[in-house]
Amino acid sequence: MSTYTMKTSLIFCIIFIFCFHQYFTLVVHSLEYDVGDTKGWVVPQSNASNIYNEWASKKRFQIEDSIRFKYGKDSVMVVSETDYKACNSTQPMFFSNNGNTIFKLDRSGYFYFISGVSGHCERGQKMIIKVLAIEEAPSGDGNTPGSSGAASISCSCIVQMVLLVVAGSAGLL
């Protein structure tokens, strides 16, 4: 194979790797959580009425994550904070009773979930989920409280530097 063909192939590979890496660093990585883990969405035992809020407090939910509710003869609703506190199921913002509900967390802030079956919410089948806001990158001017102004090297930058070194050592630059 000629030197020109090898250089062209190497350049193509470098561009492909760079584009592939950039694509996957831009893709939002979302997770799906099973509410209640293996127990699912059921009425808690009388001594565990806070089980769902304890479960949710151990997670770090992000925008675009999903939560899956698995249940039998029951339902799941998203309600306002006021309706959550009162276990009021008359004005849900979201309702499902298909036994396998996936709910996408599409914004930051709080989501309030309750069972729509009479008496279940009062017995603890309810949950608050806090979805974290997307953090803005500091401007780097050193004026942001708590920022040192020091530059950080991202994985993307490291990959770009490695590609430049490889291209340079192959005589492509």
Automatic annotation (TrEMBL):
UniProt-listed InterPro entries: Cupredoxin (IPR008972), ENL_dom (IPR041846), Phytocyanin-like (IPR039391), Phytocyanin_dom (IPR003245)
Membrane topology: Lipid-anchor; GPI-anchor
Main location: membrane
Keyword Disulfide bond: yes
GO cellular component terms listed in the entry, alphabetical order: endomembrane system; plasma membrane; side of membrane
Compartment(s): Endomembrane system; Membrane
Pfam families cross-referenced by the UniProt entry: Cu_bind_like
Keywords: Disulfide bond, Glycoprotein, GPI-anchor, Lipoprotein, Membrane, Signal
Phytocyanin domain segment(s): 31-133
One example GO MF annotation: electron transfer activity
Family: Belongs to the early nodulin-like (ENODL) family.
Name assigned to this protein: Phytocyanin domain-containing protein
